[in-house]
Amino acid sequence: MNMFCYQCEQTAKGKGCTLQGVCGKSPEVAALEDLLIYALKGISVYAHKARELGAKDKAIDLFVIEGLFTTITNVDFDPERLQEILLKGYEIQKKARALYLDAYKKQHGRDFEGALPAATEWKPTTDLKGLIDQGMGVGIFSDVSLNEDIRSLRELLIYGMKGMAAYADHANVLGREDEEVTAWFHKGLEAVTNDHLTVEQLVGLNMEFGKVNLKCMELLDKAHTDHFGNPLPTPVFIGVKKGPAIVVSGHDLFDLEQLLQQTEDKGISIYTHSEMLPAHGYPGLKKYKHLVGNYGGAWQDQAKEFDAFPGAILMTTNCIQQPRETYKNRIFTTGLVAWPGVKHIEAVNGKKDFTPVIEAAIKAGGFKEDILGKSILTGFGHHAVLGVAGKVIEAVKAGQLRHFFLVGGCDGAKPGRNYYTEFAQAVPKDCVILTLACGKYRFNKLEFGDIGGIPRLLDMGQCNDAYSAIQVAVALAKAFNCGVNELPLSLILSWYEQKAVCILLSLLSLGIQNIRIGPSLPAFVSPNVLSVLVKTFNIKPITTPKEDLAAILGPTKG
Ligand code: SF4
Ligand code: SF3
Question: Using an 8 Å Cβ cutoff, are 442 and 410 in contact?
Fold first, then answer.
């Protein structure tokens, strides 16, 4: 076996990528990412123990958050960049050790002498080959004798924390932090090195994590709405405008804002791509006249679409795929995204200079003529939806609005994902579909109409805006004087990468039941762990749109 990775839905044969990642991750990158996770565990053991003694350090916290984010599917494919991160990680480890040992001595009046997990002793070799060899020895199955349920629950927690790290990082660049969220990264990573934890304790920690992730999504929601204003329902143009163009992908709204500022009055049109679509709803971003529209579909269609895009491309977060040679000189990465040979825009004192992207856009020439297109709607965050809550509640009470479906999550390349298109199309006309994340591209260009002025398809935003969906569900439950599980609301989720894992854990931690999940179940969930989830939360895999709709609405009505 060259590598082992099963963290995403696309994993080979539904079991694990062992020769090469289906995502394009090489065994070398897989080993370096395994080593990074190992290094982060060691750092967090110190950081967690230091925090218990009242000592903390911002550089350590940020390194762990960014390190986790780096290992999310489709973020960093560059061995040399990973090498740099690992070498910095060793410096951070030494800092964390000193922080803990000092705090210990201050508290106890003597030196610490106990034993700590092996990861705390990691020392890198300086060459890339040596680091890859080290990484091969610390992967998911390095401890073959580990109980499979313990392994499953540890990986579930690590993947959830990777997702939360992305959200914490986005909040961080906007100057927001929450002590409980930050501290939990260290607590969680320390817990997965603890050989004494039982299955029950790890299940409990996963649920506790779900609550903390909810707090993190709330933090990011606040960071976004304080900085950019509350999203407003907004039509988004999906044609193109003549002239030079830049398309911006990923989730980082702050990157988009900086690019919009730097391209004002330059005659360049800015387009959103994939998870950047909800940006159009924010007053602080929609005010820029040259933010003209949304280009293309979800991430898995990028090679063909970027090829055809006569401008520059900026990837702010996942999901990047191997760039074709035809556009390799006009695609740029920033933040934690990296691809070997692709130009990276670094932040200097929190600010980014996008001049190379702008120059590449001008050089590429842009669109030769306007291409008319229709508009799609976005901007239905919790503020907008709750603003018309009275109308919604009335429609439900009058029997005009029968059921809400949250059909959302990640998109991906598998043919089985047509389920979500067919499901949305089969939802009866007296029901509303809430959606979020990039899975919406399966159906967001179709016509759904409205129910008494309430659009039947409400785009609530990015994956992190699952927070909005939860807020709306809680408010509806309050209005109808029932629990969220008693609402006429069903969750039909699609997952691909680790942000979906943290969102799922948040939903479960709130006690939300009957979630349907697809297109397949996670390979890292062991049969016993799955049976706990099924027994406690009645989680189920999707079947067919017809069968699932009949089960939810009743056979005669569906
Ligand atoms: Fe395979 Fe997904 Fe891991 Fe990539 S991230 S190597 S596709 S399991
Ligand atoms: Fe999509 Fe990659 Fe997950 Fe934020 S952009 S949802 S897959």
Answer: no
Three-state secondary structure string covering 428-461: CCCEEEEECCHHHHHCCCCCCCEECCEECEEECC
Distance CA 37, CA 94 (A): 16
Backbone angles phi, psi at 251, to 5 degrees: -110, -5
As a whole-number percent, the residues of the chain with pLDDT over 70 amount to 99
Instruction: Identify the nearest ligand to the CA of 15 by its number.
Output: 1
Residue 167, ligand 2, Cβ within 6 A = no
* pLDDT of 198: 98
d(CA 538, CA 534): 4
pLDDT digits (tens, 9 = 90+) for 385-414: 999 999 999 999 999 999 999 999 999 999
Q: What percent of the chain has pLDDT over 90?
A: 98
Contacts of 483 (CB under 8 A, 6+ apart): 477
Is the C-beta atom of 11 inside 6 A of ligand 1?
A: yes
Bridge-based pairing state of the strands 540-541 and 516-518: parallel
pTM over 0.85: yes
Which helix (H) or strand (E) segment is 540 a member of? Answer: strand 540-541
CA 27-33-39 angle, to 5 degrees, is: 140
Q: What is the pLDDT of residues 240-275, one digit of tens each?
A: 999 999 999 999 999 999 999 999 999 999 999 999
pLDDT tens digits for range 91-141:
999 999 999 999 999 999 999 999 999 999 999 998 999 999 999 999 999
Cα dihedral 441→69→12→322 (10° resolution): 70
Name the residue with the closest Cα to ligand 2, atom 2: 319
Does 7 sit in the ligand 1 pocket, CB within 6 Å?
yes
Question: Taking 90 as the threshold, does the pLDDT of residue 532 lie above it?
Answer: yes
Q: Which domains does the chain have, with CATH numbers?
A: 12-227 (1.20.1270.20), 234-364 (3.40.50.2030), 382-553 (3.40.50.2030)
Is any ligand 2 atom within 6 A of the Cβ of residue 502? no
Alpha-carbon dihedral sign for residues 198, 200, 203, 205: negative
- Residue whose Cα lies nearest atom 5 of ligand 2: it is 319
